[in-house]
């Protein structure tokens, strides 16, 4: 009996649907033995427990858009596909809370919440699952005002690596008991356990939204305007920038939300902050959120880099990207939540692998994220490669220096001593 057959037989007894793995099921190029599709928390627990009993590893999967982000797993025996767990379990509209299974998509959730005039303030592709969004920690432009998944998560149910089910948090916003577990799992890439249910706090849908945009000839002017608008009392919900290539104008955009009269006045005042030529529109500009984490699988063939920093250092980061691009001969596009201190750098799939690797290393050195030997110009932050071709991945550290790595390893040992869940996907091979 082959390993694939052995684990498939063991998983079949859990009640989960078990299928043969194909090329599309590989995670970072690592092929699994089979794919399990649990339909309940009990089935999900059975899948993890059965795999662990056989010494097999488990890699969770939602929509599959970002399953190959980070490092390839050291082993991938079973992919736990969560798309059958797609029920919205409870919507307490009066409490602004929703509880949903991990396989619920953002599109599905958005439609249900909109019927009550509410929303989950996390943008992303409609096909993205809520479990996947929490596991990756992905957030879009609204992060400026509402934060990231860990900030909106008030409860979570997970399957531990030994197959036991654990609950944390509650169903009301003020109940924060056990909330740290949710924070640990947010952004953990499936390395601590299998997320099966999540509970989020919600926000009302805005009666009106307006976008104030302007193009600038240089990064310094754009950065100054974005930071001024984000820090003003005009209550921007998002402050984005976009530059499609080196030397191109830098686009700046500010999102305002509220009632009709209030938004109109704030938009006019925001336009004055951005300066002559600023435009006001009720529709998002075509470039809005084009380069962020919502791109997902769309960048799988190329390189997507997330640069995090203190927002006040936006101009220095843009200048560093320009300098390093010239030195290494690449042509990056840049965009993201400049007002919140998060930018995304994208490089085409056709870019030379050696030049891309040089760009990543040089950008870390230029921004102070290359380690103690590269002090750079910035105090805090990170340059993380979310996805890149294999030729680049083999010659560059995807995560870069991680100050809390020893603590992270200790947490991994405590939660997953058998190294069952997504081994090797996180920083330092965790």
Short summary:
The chain has 430 residues and is α+β, with helices and mostly antiparallel strands. The protein has 13 helices and 19 strands.
From the N-terminal CA to the C-terminal CA, the straight-line distance is: 31 Å
The figure for the number of domains is 4
Number of helices: 13
CATH topology of the largest domain: Uridine Diphospho-n-acetylenolpyruvylglucosamine Reductase, domain 3
Indicate the mean pLDDT.
Answer: 91
Write the CATH architecture name of the largest domain.
2-Layer Sandwich
Q: Give a quick account of the main beta sheet: strands, pairing sense, barrel closure.
A: 8 strands, antiparallel
Coarse morphology: globular
Task: Name the CATH class of the largest domain.
Answer: Alpha Beta
Radius of gyration over all CA atoms, rounded = 22 Å
The strand line-up of the biggest sheet is: 15-12-14-13-17-18-16-19
Number of DSSP-assigned strands: 19
**Portion in beta strands:** 15-25%
Low-confidence segments, ≥5 residues, pLDDT <50?
Answer: 172-179
Q: Given the helix and strand composition, which structural class is it?
A: alpha+beta
Helix proportion: 25-40%
């Amino acid at each position: 009996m082959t390993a694939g057959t052995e684990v498939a037989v063991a998983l079949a007894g859990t009640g989960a649907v078990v299928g043969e793995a194909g090329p599309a099921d590989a995670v970072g190029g690592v092929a699994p033995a089979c794919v399990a599709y649990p339909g309940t928390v009990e089935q999900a627990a059975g899948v993890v427990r059965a795999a662990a009993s056989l010494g097999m590893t488990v890699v969770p999967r939602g929509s599959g858009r970002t399953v190959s982000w980070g490092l390839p797993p050291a082993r991938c025996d079973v992919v736990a596909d969560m798309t059958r767990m797609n029920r919205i379990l409870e919507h307490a509209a009066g409490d602004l809370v929703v509880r949903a299974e991990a396989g619920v998509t953002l599109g599905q959730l958005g439609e249900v919440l909109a019927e009550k005039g509410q929303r989950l303030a996390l943008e992303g592709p409609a096909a993205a699952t809520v479990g996947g969004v929490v596991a990756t920690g992905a957030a879009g432009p609204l992060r400026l005002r509402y934060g990231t998944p860990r900030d909106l998560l008030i409860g979570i149910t997970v399957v531990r690596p030994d197959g036991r089910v654990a609950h944390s948090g509650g169903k009301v916003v003020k109940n924060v008991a056990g909330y740290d577990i949710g924070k640990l799992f947010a952004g953990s890439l499936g390395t601590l356990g299998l997320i099966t249910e999540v509970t989020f706090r919600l926000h009302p849908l805005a009666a009106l939204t307006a976008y104030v945009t302007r193009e600038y000839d240089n990064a310094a002017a754009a950065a100054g305007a974005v930071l001024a608008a984000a820090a003003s009392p005009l209550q921007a919900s998002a402050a984005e920038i976009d530059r499609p290539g080196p030397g191109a104008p830098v686009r700046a955009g500010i999102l305002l939300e509220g009632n009709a009269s209030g938004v109109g006045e704030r938009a006019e005042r925001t336009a004055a902050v951005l300066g002559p030529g600023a435009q006001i529109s009720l529709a998002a500009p075509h470039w809005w959120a084009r380069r962020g984490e919502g791109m997902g699988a769309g960048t799988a063939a190329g390189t997507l880099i997330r640069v995090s920093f203190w927002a006040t250092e936006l101009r220095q980061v843009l200048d560093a990207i320009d300098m390093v691009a010239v030195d290494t001969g690449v042509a990056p596009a840049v965009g993201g939540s400049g007002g919140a201190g998060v930018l995304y750098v994208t490089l085409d799939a056709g870019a030379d692998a050696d030049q891309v690797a040089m760009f990543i290393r040089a950008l870390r050195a230029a921004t102070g994220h290359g380690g103690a030997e590269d002090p750079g110009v910035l105090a805090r932050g990170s340059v993380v490669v979310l996805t890149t071709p294999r030729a680049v991945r083999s010659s560059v550290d995807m995560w870069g220096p991680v100050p809390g790595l020893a603590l992270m390893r200790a947490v991994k040992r405590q939660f997953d001593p058998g190294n069952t869940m997504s081994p090797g996907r996180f920083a330092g091979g965790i």
